[in-house]
Design brief:
Keywords: Membrane, Transmembrane, Transmembrane helix. This is Integral membrane protein. This protein is an all-alpha fold and 244 residues long. Helix content is 68%, strand content 0%. It has one domain.
Length: 244
Amino acid sequence: MNLQHISSPRMTRETARDRFLLPCGPLALLCIFIFLAASRLLPPVSPSKSPEDLVAHYSQNKSAIDAGVFLCLVGSILWPLYTVAINNQLSRIPGIHPTILSLQTASGAVSGATILLIGIFFAAATYRLDRDPVVTELASDLAWLAYTFASTPWFVQEAVLSWGICCDYRAKPLIPHWVAWVNAGLSLSWIPTYATHIVHDGPLAWNGGYTFWVPWGTSGIMYTLVTIYFWKAAGIVDGGEVVN
């Protein structure tokens, strides 16, 4: 197979655009992680913490949480941009069904909205710390449940993304199929976290070792792989090779 460099100005612009947008996904996750670390929410506060202790924690870290809410808002913008770049590359697979592209776009948009909800609920939790502590506890619970269940639309997005990759039946697919299998397999590790709302302690609570740390570990692997291989794909045209 002859190697071809993208020389068309249009293709060069599209390559640059998607390579600019693809890192937005990992950056969105980084925004959330920095927020949690700076707000002393790493690991999260215990679901069993009393309302009064919860208010005390939020009061001591109010400035950091307020800044972290801004990071969540930024993350909610970045994630849909990442989704667009993914969709642009999936759409290049010959014969890919429009349903795959629509589901990938929709789940990515919902994922961005979920990150926004996390920021809104944390903002509500710290907005009036002089009110009844039980009200602050409710806002905090909503924030942590939104955080934990954010992986639901992400799970759909990763499943559809993997499906799309495997629809490329060419001898040399745009994205290696093993990336899809690793991606789909690791995303299954998120399923046990959907029991968070029925427990208050242990590994499946929102501050538990499984629910909190396993998704971060698997997400780190998944989104690194996806970003790298879609970045490479953005520079390939008509079975040719990468732009410089």
